[in-house]
Automatic annotation (TrEMBL):
Keyword Lipoprotein: no
Membrane topology: Multi-pass membrane protein
Protein's name in the database: Glutathione transferase
Membrane-spanning segments: none
Gene source species: Pisolithus microcarpus 441
Signal peptide: none
Pfam family membership, one: MAPEG
Length: 108
């Protein structure tokens, strides 16, 4: 939903995945669209590891696995808001590290 909202505001048409450099230099909205798209891609890249570690952890510790997966979800939402803010370098200041808790569930 975040990516599509930024896509509409930037005027980037499907199937273009990212705004071109020329579009970014002219429009701040195009830059924010690229940030939203990258945050989405980052989430998709991490998802297989999160799913596997959650499933393995849930065999022995289902409550811990559920809490860790929920924390990861909340962390990714906050990470996306941080990444799509005016300064993407602040992506972890909105709670992005919270998403790493799901990887720690295997140590419990």
């Amino acid at each position: 939903m975040v990516v599509n909202g930024h896509r509409e505001r930037a005027g980037i048409k499907h199937p273009q995945q990212y705004a071109e450099k020329a579009e970014v230099s002219v429009s701040r909205e195009a830059y924010k669209f690229n940030c939203a798209q990258r945050a989405h891609q980052s989430t998709l890249e991490q998802m297989p590891s999160v799913i596997v570690t959650t499933l393995i952890s849930a065999l022995r510790y289902p409550n811990v696995a559920a809490i860790a997966c929920g924390a990861w979800t909340v962390g990714r939402i906050l990470y996306t808001f941080g990444y799509t803010s005016e300064a993407p370098e602040k992506r972890n200041t909105y709670g992005g590290p919270l998403g790493l808790l799901s990887f720690m569930s295997k140590w419990v």
